Amino acid sequence: MVKLIALYKTPEDKEAFDKHYFEVHAPLTAKIPGLREMKVSKIVGSPMGKTDYYLQCEMYYDSHEAFKAAMKTDEAKTSGKDLMGFAGHLVTLLIGEDVNE
After folding, report:
1. Single pTM value for the model
2. Parts of the chain with a pLDDT under 70
3. Exposure string (b/e) for 21-51, b if CB count within 10 Å is 16 or more?
C-alpha cells in the first residue's frame, strides 16, 4: 500500500479550518478514483511537548501506479486546487509506503 500523507500546521482560526476541511475538502478528496481509505487524525500533542501540527490525513492507494493514476484525475486536481486555496501555507505532503515486518 502507498499513502499520501498530509500534515497540517495549526491554523490561526481552527473553527474555520475545521468547517472547510470536513465540509468541503474531505468530501472532495474522498471522490478521488482509486482512493482505498482515508484516515484523519487530530494531533493532540507530542511526547516532546508542544507541536506545531494540528491535523494529519493518510490517503491509501493500492500501489505507486494506482496513486500516480489517481493524481491525474479531475477529482484529484479539484482536491489539490481546494487544498492550495485554503491551506497551502499550512500543509506538508509526503508519500509513504507501508512496510510489513
Report:
1. 0.92
2. 101
3. beeebeebbeebebbeebeeeeeeeeeeeee
